[in-house]
Amino acid sequence: MCGHDTSGKPRGGAIAVLNSSMTSPQTCGWCAELTFHTPGRPGSPLATHARLTSVGGEDLTDFTKTSVLIHESGDFTRCAEDCGLFRSFDFQSAVLVDGGLALEMELPHPMEIQVGDNGIIGRRVSMRRTSGDASMSSRELPTAEGIVGFNFLAKA
């Protein structure tokens, strides 16, 4: 990265770059960043907040109906359903920030920023969006997937 980073994006913690799920033609080309961080403490080993930022600048208002699943495994050679469930949360209590370009929320439980044990680094993440269609109200549609990695800003 050249120059100074003046964005409001959280640094430190963890990040998953999410891309459209292979099984989700309705979100073809959609890309987002899901960050896990503790505000004001970029070096914290725990994340207390999550932020979803659309890379393409799409309106995220409807994403409050989105569930995030963190899987036991990071194996993309298997179906997400076969990767086990480590943690999950939804963006129902999230608020729009950065002029509506991001959703941010406090996590129900802090998450460890480490590899292995109770850490989230290296785990697969799936987003599931609940359909707004009343006839499909109980169905969750796969939206995007990625792998959680470290999100540290290198010191100059």
TrEMBL record:
Protein name as annotated: Uncharacterized protein
UniProt source species: Pyricularia oryzae (strain 70-15 / ATCC MYA-4617 / FGSC 8958) (Rice blast fungus)
